[in-house]
Amino acid sequence: MFSKVFGIGLSGIDAYEVSVEVDVSDGLPAFVMVGVLAAEVKEAQDRVRTALRNGGFTLRPQKVTVNLSPAGVRKSGTAFDLAIAAGVLGAYGVIDCTAFQDVVLLGELGLDGQVRPVRGVLSMVMEAKRCGKKICVVPQDNVREGQIIPGIQMIGIQCVKELPELLRKRSQKDRRGLTEILQESCESEQERYPIDFKEVQGQFLVRRATEVAVSGRHHILYIGSAGSGKTMIAERIPTILPSASIEEQLEISRIYSVCGMLSREHPLMRKRPFRSPHHSSSIQALAGGGKYPVPGELSLASGGVLFLDELPEFPRYAIEILREPLESRKIVISRVNGRYEFPADFILAAAMNPCPCGFYPDRNRCHCTENQIHNYLGKVSKPIRDRIDICVEAAAVSYEELNSRKEQESSETIRKRVERVRKIQEERFQGTGIHFNGEMSGEMIRKFCVLEKGEEAFFRELYQKKGFSARGYGKVLKVARTIADMEGAELIGHSHLCEAIGYRSLEEKYWNGN
Length: 514
Known about the structure:
The chain has about 525 residues and is an alpha/beta fold.
């Protein structure tokens, strides 16, 4: 007897529909699975047989053949277990699988018949809805995650013995959905942070540069001696970022779902991510990868901030993988089994000391040799520096500043200014597919970053004198456009251009030896 049900497979963060075809025939008892399967999928035959037996089903010893189609696509993961079990029961005539044609089944089986949660449910449910399915059967622990997607009914299952009565639940209206999930999420996980910019004493220039970076979504590099507040300020960037839209929250949650990092109680991520990997992280941990590639830190930071503290301490090859993602805002991983594309749309905030001991160029305290300083700074290559829009120096904080009782600006105050500037950009780029000054193409720079005759002559002279690259030229104009937006100016003025150029002057001070 033949039966057919449907599951969903994962490829990176994307999902695809899989037909689970089961045939039971006479012959020597066997359980054969075909369809280009990873080891954990092949092992499903033992999990399914044992789970069905412990679930109270007595099946005749016959030849069982299971095919996962499309047969040419490699399947991995344990989410096919439940669909295979349903297909086997249908082929034995225990359940009627013709009623499962608009149903997708997802879940891993334990040997005792319990249905265990799986990762990537958010992407799988999205694909099920796209394929026109009306019901998604998932482990009970994954129900709340699946309910984020409107327009498809979620049914939770705890044990394989519930399968025969499963479709009786389809008449039960699922009253929960995205609105209820959002309401619960708002009540339980409001955007409150235990840290605030008002705790930062002094460092006016660094605070200003950080606000410019967040307003136009520019990448920023902090340089300064140890203990000057670089990490403290970078950690507070999320507190001044505007709230994520529903679409952004879903995209962020989808990435974390595939990595199995979503909370079961509050599966919708409302806060923008802040990722700060250690400098000993491998290239796979940063970019993503593995035998069956999964997102890395660059993708987990998408929609938020990627903070690389002690940048020169990262291996050179780990720093260089940032080149393409900083430009394209995505990362592509190619393997023999396929090509995987992960989002990498983040603000890069990096911090570094000017030398191994951290005190250069103060030669009264720095005892590093010229070679040591050169090698240390040389770990951050010119192509990487060119992709960073803003480079700012964090000077040592004086005792008077630390001991000051003056109230500093709060994150909420700065955030309101950032939201106003971003609204200007939204209106400017409406219909273009981009949202921020930091994303402008060369054509858009020529259109929106027009200089007056005097400013153009001034910039031409500096461009030739300082030896800017073509990319550096664009970065200066993008930052100048953001500074002008912050002041509500229609055109880029002399002061805006000077400030933007100043944010690239540290390259001359440190890397060019002047």
